[in-house]
Design brief:
alpha+beta, 13 helices, 33% helix, eight-stranded antiparallel sheet
Length: 431
């Protein structure tokens, strides 16, 4: 019996069997077989969720053969990709087609289905999450039915299953809105805390996409602002890209974290050095080469979406909590913003939000730090990212989502016997 383990190493399971579906019929066969035996089925993506959302004790479907862009509609400006397609493959294909997603997160290793099912998002823009850019999908329900949902059919399923936590069915393909290929003008610079907090809301209004990273135990942040343009690309030189993104952000940062784990008292000074090492830079490139970054340092993460108006206050409270605690936090804290969307289980449903994400390296204990920050963010009416660590349960999540009952009704219809269930879904959605 093989073991499946998540990217961060936090979640693992030993499924009773594994299958490698090559088409939707194979998925149907796996689901109907499991349903007949009273077993469970899950099709995890690349394992980039930090929660136990993808675990199963039954049949685990590996989506590595369900890849590729299988449809392009230039009239409707949509593309359809099979569920196991990585965002890296999708983005590269879109560039070749002269197309791009409107917005995306900063990890390209995720599969399309995994990314939308957990609410992967970027910052700013008209739509921040990948789920909000989904206009159609195909899934296999708990009874083995192949159901296609779009703006003209099964619209209630489309609404919910585009961020369905893997609870509505096995996604086999996803149709996303796209745009003509554009470039992003990127400006990254270090900034002091007071200037960043005082000016971020204005900066986020002035730029299409803005975010910042605070280095704990210092008053320094890295500020990123990106603007859409049709100007020709002027990418970073290969040397500058290697120096900043490979040497400093991965190799040196990995060493810094190892030293910090061994000598926690050094973490504040190490953070100060790290904050100064990343200097100002400007470049212009296709969107995915600006939005996404290569990460080799493994970590653990918790992220919450609080109402946008409370974002900077919540951020200040988190800093105060860190400063009065005995924690030594070697990973930057990330602050992003997102417009409201209409996805029922989206943390940004029906309200503009500020996303606050906290991290520790994979070898560090996150428990007290994440618990303390979670208490602050819950006090600000925060909603957790579904694919990241949190302690919330269905009873206290339900009041936070106006369309909670609608989402559960779709689940009851598509998977009445809970073929796609697991302990995580039982905790966060109830049974």
């Amino acid at each position: 019996m093989s073991t499946w383990t998540s990217w961060a190493g936090l979640s693992s399971c030993s499924p009773a069997q594994e299958r490698l579906p090559v088409d939707v019929d194979d998925v149907v066969a796996a689901v109907t077989d499991a349903a007949a035996r009273g077993a469970h089925v899950k099709m995890p993506g690349s394992g980039h969720s930090f929660s136990d959302i993808a675990l199963t004790d039954g049949t685990l479907l590996r989506p590595t053969a369900l890849t590729g862009v299988v449809g392009v509609d230039r009239g409707a400006m949509t593309v359809t990709a099979l569920a196991g397609t990585t965002l890296r493959e999708l983005n590269a294909t879109l560039v070749r087609l002269g197309l791009s997603l409107h917005n995306m997160g900063d990890v390209e290793d995720q599969t399309v289905a995994g990314a939308i099912s957990t609410g992967t998002h970027g910052t700013g823009g008209v739509k921040a999450s990948l789920s909000a850019q989904v206009v159609g999908l195909e899934l296999v329900t708990g009874t083995g039915e192949v159901l296609r949902a779009d703006r003209t059919q099964h619209t209630d399923v489309l609404e919910v299953a585009r961020l369905g936590l893997g609870a509505m069915g096995v996604l086999t393909s996803v149709t996303l809105e796209v745009e003509p290929l554009f470039r992003l003008e990127a400006h990254e610079r270090p900034i002091r805390w007071d200037e960043a907090v005082a000016g971020f809301d204005d900066l986020a209004t002035q730029h299409h996409h803005a975010e910042m990273y605070w280095f704990p135990h210092t008053d320094r942040l890295l500020l990123k602002a990106n603007d859409r343009t049709t100007d020709d690309p002027e990418p970073l030189s290969r040397l500058r890209e290697w120096w900043d993104d490979e040497l400093l952000s991965n190799r040196v940062f990995d060493l810094v974290n190892r030293v910090g784990n061994a000598r926690p008292s050094l973490v504040p000074r190490l953070n100060a050095v790290s904050a100064r090492a990343l200097g100002e830079r400007r470049y212009r490139d296709v969107p995915h080469r600006v939005f996404t970054t290569r990460r080799t340092v493994r970590f653990r993460e918790m992220e919450y979406a609080v109402p946008r108006a409370a974002g900077l206050s919540a951020l200040a409270e988190v800093r105060a909590l860190v400063e009065r605690s005995g924690w030594r936090i070697g990973f930057p804290l990330e602050y992003r913003v997102a417009p409201a969307d209409d996805v029922p289980l989206s943390p940004a449903h029906d309200r503009d939000v500020a996303w606050i994400a906290v991290h520790v390296n994979a070898a560090a204990d996150h428990t007290d730090y994440f618990a303390g920050v979670e208490a602050v963010l819950r006090a600000h009416d925060g909603r957790p990212h579904w694919g990241k660590l949190h302690t919330r349960e269905a009873a206290d999540l339900a009041p936070a989502y106006p369309r909670w009952k609608d989402a559960l009704a779709v689940r009851d219809r598509l998977d009445p016997e809970r073929v796609f269930g697991n302990a995580y879904l039982e905790r966060v959605l109830g049974d």
